[in-house]
Amino acid sequence: MPPSKILGRLPGLRHFIEVAQLGSFRAAAEKLHVAPSAVSKQIKNLELALDVELFRRDRGRAGLELTEAGEILLFRCASVVNELTIAQDEIDQLQGLQRGHLRLGVNEVLASDLLPGLLRDMSYNHPGLKFTIIVENTREIVARMQDGDIDIALGYNFPPSAEIETLATLRRRTYVVTALDHPMARLRTVRLENIEGEKMIFPDASIPMRQLLEDALVQGNIAVREIMSTNSFTLLRQMVESGMGIGIVFGRFLQTRREKIAFVELTDLPFDSPPVACCRMAGRTPTASSVAFAAAIKTLFANYGG
């Protein structure tokens, strides 16, 4: 099909994406605020234009299933939607980021520590910007970047890949965090052996840091008492602040809320802390808003003391 005819099917593509993602003509119609018959007609017209069947419609209550052709089209549509979003942002760029859209994926600990101050400053400097912030683990963030749902990411442990472009990195120091009345709170540094016998709040097994810590404790023949594990570093610090136990974290941003906890540098770990990285998909034209965010991150990292 000539490109001009494909462009003429953009409304049908939008309906197709919603049906494919929601698995239902009715659900797609509700989201698009149109009649289910209108969605069905758009899909049928698209199938006629492409001369393929995009959905198997014989699954009854189990919902719709994409055909092989439908799977191919949905995969390619992610790039189309991403390029259209970039085009919109480039048009908005003509007005000096007055109406741009920052779509960011970020790990939870950075979302609570680092992000609020950055977003506050960007919003002040560019009051017309819209923000969509997805807080997820790194694996999910990479998947969302690949699908075109987000433009730029901030987190730990991005996999080495030619399709991921790293814009800035920061290696943070490792700290024991304690309540302010804990005996270690008065120290500037501690060794791993100094936490022998302590009550510990660990990150859970879904976080790569957990395995690093367990291996280090085994290697050092150091026994601690695990009283809690969590996939939330925000909760971990809150429970440390309450005096429930101590924890180990990478870095000490805490820009917006100064929690009543002490950071004591841990000096003899048998591993290097993973860097914080700001990344985007290689080969895609960056949006103006993501370029501005990357510049702010680079400035922050250059001024950060660990």
TrEMBL record:
SUPFAM superfamilies xrefs: Periplasmic binding protein-like II, Winged helix' DNA-binding domain
InterPro entries, sorted: HTH-type_LysR_regulators, LysR_HTH_N, LysR_subst-bd, WH-like_DNA-bd_sf, WH_DNA-bd_sf
Keywords recorded for this protein, A-Z: DNA-binding, Transcription, Transcription regulation
Organism: Salipiger abyssi
Location of the HTH lysR-type domain: 13-67
Keyword Glycosyltransferase: no
Pfam families named in the record: HTH_1, LysR_substrate
Molecular function terms, GO-annotated: DNA binding; DNA-binding transcription factor activity
The protein, known as: Transcriptional regulator
Domain of life: Bacteria
Entry-linked CDD domains: PBP2_LTTR_substrate
Mitochondrion listed as a keyword: no
GO cellular component, one term: cytosol
Family: Belongs to the LysR transcriptional regulatory family.
